[in-house]
Write a structure and sequence with these properties.
Length: about 425
Amino acid sequence: MRYRLYFFSLISAFSLSMVAQQQVIDGVKRSISDLSASAATYKSALTRLKPALSHESTKEKAETWWLAGKIAFDIYDKMQHTKAVGNKVDEKEMATYLTQGYNYCKTALRLDSVPELNHDGSPKVDRKTRRPLVKTKYSADITAKLLENLQHFASVGGELYNSGNWNDAWNAWEAYHEIAISAYAREKKKVPADTLVGKMRFYQGLAAFQSTDYLLAHQCFSDARIYGYRQKAVFDNDLNVLVRMGDTTEVVNVAREAYQVHGAADIQYLRILINDHLNKLQYKDATSLLDQAIKKDPTNAEYYNLKGVIIEQEKDFEAALPLYLKAIEADPYYAVGQYDVGRCYYLRALELIKNNSNLSRGTLNDKVNPVFQQALFYLENAYELNTNDPDVIKILKDIYYRLGMGEQLQELER
């Protein structure tokens, strides 16, 4: 008997608690029914409602979460109006209410999709589609509210990013992404252009990069390109991320994709592909790739110089020299080309010294010094174009020493 009374008292207590929570929800509704209610009134209402979000009797009700979502969006609207008329607001707090509204609404949508049941408790099934039948009460209003705020998520993400709130910016843009690709956006024909969705995904990648979540950043940059947003910055930032991750295989894959789209705008993509071929000793493939590039842009000095590098690695510097000369013919102000030509003449002089050890000093100097002078001409050009290149400086010092050019050597060593 005592057990029954105790059990009955538990049921009564739960029933009273359930009634109390519903009264809270009804009271919150009444408190925000006045359209002139202030942001403070809405904030107070949301605070009063929050216990109902976790109470056993109300936490599984779509109504509870939808009401919380509406209030959060209304707070955002009130704060946005305050900002629009020139008054100061806490922008991070305003953004937080926007993303809170989205998260509340996501939960409401999930709870609002209740399966229709037969008398025996089994789910009802549509005879044509064979899919389970569901009934909803709030979903139409919820999805309308989310689509209404779609562009706000995009702009708020930008504001958060510019203020250094990387994670919050990512979350705002993630809400945009989820809404934009949702079934209800497609159903209501409110889906933004793929490239716009891709642009937001790119911004998410930037936010993830700033938070040093490189794997997530790479995923976002990849998604951006899948959506058709293939700006050069997407590839460049993805390559930067992949280098930090040490994923050399994917670096090559992204560089190959970037070369197809932006190859003429940046030689770094071609350089990555060629280095990959060289590392694999695939000289023929590397040369073929460069020949295609030269055919498209026959005045590009770097292309000839890169081809020279391949030939030098495959054969020797003498075979590469004509290509280095071709490079500086295409662009006399190309410092790397000037250096490589000078370096080849320097190596030629060293070869002469090595192969003519039987000659007298005077005879050897007559044979070698003109070649050092040739090297000097191009290396001094390279130095003028780039005074900080340690490789240029190292060879110049050696030539000045060998030719007895003490004044120039001292000047270089200052």
